[in-house]
Amino acid sequence: MIKKGLKKVHQEGLDILSSFKTKDSFTRNFSYLFSGRVITTLLSFAVTPVLTRIYSPEAYGYFAFFNAFVMNFTVVSSLSYDSALVIVDKERKFYNLFFACILLSFLTSFLLLGGLLILYFSPTLRNFINLDNDLPLSLIFLISFGGILYSLTQLQPKWNIRRKQFKHAARVGVINQIISRSTAIILGFFYGAPIYGLVFSELASKINAITINTYKNLIKEWSLFTKAISFKVVIEVLKEQLSYPKYILSGKYIGLISKQIPIFVGAFFFNSEIIGNYGLAISMLILPMNILSNTIQPVILKKVNDSKKNNEDIRSFVIKILNIILILATPFFTLLFIFSEWVFPVIFGEQWILAGQFAKIISVYLIVDIIQVFSGSLYLVYEKQRQLFNTHLSKFLLSVIFILPGIFYENFNYVLIGFGFIYYIMGWYEVNKVLKYIGLRAGYYFSILTVYIGLMLAIYFVT
Asked: What are the strands, taking DSSP E only, across 347-408?
């Protein structure tokens, strides 16, 4: 019996090793992205304690608001047609859709600039954005520039996925991290830029990504790209993929706004120090999550899309991925819940005590976010955009209701608890709904994790 078991383990090990040698295999693609994410995460963890001693919580608050504002624009910049770039079947349609996304990004960026000019000349609107003081006007103008950079940056990874250039994507991610962090340190330490250092460092990484990816993809395929472009085909493919702006756009936007509720609540009802502490907490928790979620998502999207075209059964594959995510994520979030209040002030400085308290609450519900990354790919491939929109809308409306006690009692911890409760429940509802489309259910996982999270919440309120 033992001998047979050892042979099975040995054979599985050989299969995994052989899959590394197979071009375009899931294991090999996953390993590229995973290693890249590990490196970028370690770099961020190593440098962040330095940044938190250069930049204040208020500066992080301004930066968090900048990112939130620009990300809201980025979601609508290409009307979500970029989500279809991996799905379209013919290369000519892909080129024309990519061209259309570029045009839409520039068009919406000019509209954003117009809106910002109105904001610049309207003190009433500026005062509506309550971040202790008026948002610096120079930072407002940076948003329009950041908008186009963010928009173009989100287009190019789709090209990498379509061409299965996962090794290249991992390499770009590492370089971006080095540029972003080094720029922030140089500008913050040598030029004393409490706000602009963080903003410019992010923009520098975007410029780098656009430059490298443009050379790797667009320049090398320039002749094919230019020959394929036809405004007739552009209109045709935009009409074919009309469900993306109709359902995916609104769903993605509401989904993004739902995630950013704590930032906007902090801006309008609390202060920039609260936003900064929350921003640091969520960014540190998301970093290790991204090792799994952003590594798995591009590979899963490609594999599931190919499996659907070939009429292959993907249920065992999905179960395997779900098990891997939960086995790796649950111990991590448990340790965060126990130690975050002590660890954050030690690592990042005494001024970040609130970040540790926020991280403890966030760790309770954030585990479902990893699972939603891969479930979102299933919604796209199986063309259930309308159902995803309805789920995001329900999550947003319920979140607004459940954060009201925190606003009323002026307690940001209560805001996070109410927000997290809905985030968790609706997240699992979203996962369970999409799994039904492939003949699976998430009830078993939901029951186990609900008991686990219930115990953590009981400990939180008792202690």
From this structure: none
Long-range CB contact pairs, 228-231, < 8 A, 24+: 228/91, 228/92, 228/95, 228/96, 229/95, 229/96, 229/99, 230/96
Contact 168, 159 (CB under 8 A): no
User: Rounded CA gap, 431 and 437, in Å?
Assistant: 10
What are the tokens at 191?
């030029």
* Residue 421 confidence (pLDDT) above 80: yes
Q: Which two tokens stand for residue 59?
A: 């500066």
CA-closest candidate to residue 277, choices 415, 176, 399, 128: 415
With tokens 């970028």, the residue in question is 40
Dump pLDDT digits (tens) for 392-401. 788 888 888 9
From the list 88, 387, 431, 94, the residue with the least C-alpha distance to 247 is: 387
Query: Which stretch of DSSP H or E encloses residue 62?
Result: helix 57-77
For 129-161, letters b (16+ CB in 10 Å) and e give: ebbeeebeeebbebbbbbbbbbbbbbbbbbbbb
Say how far apart CA 200 and CA 433 lie, in whole Å: 41
Please report where in the chains the tokens 């540790």 appear, as a residue. Answer: 356
What's the predicted TM-score (pTM) here?
0.70
Q: What distance lies between CA 374 and its chain's CA centroid? A: 12
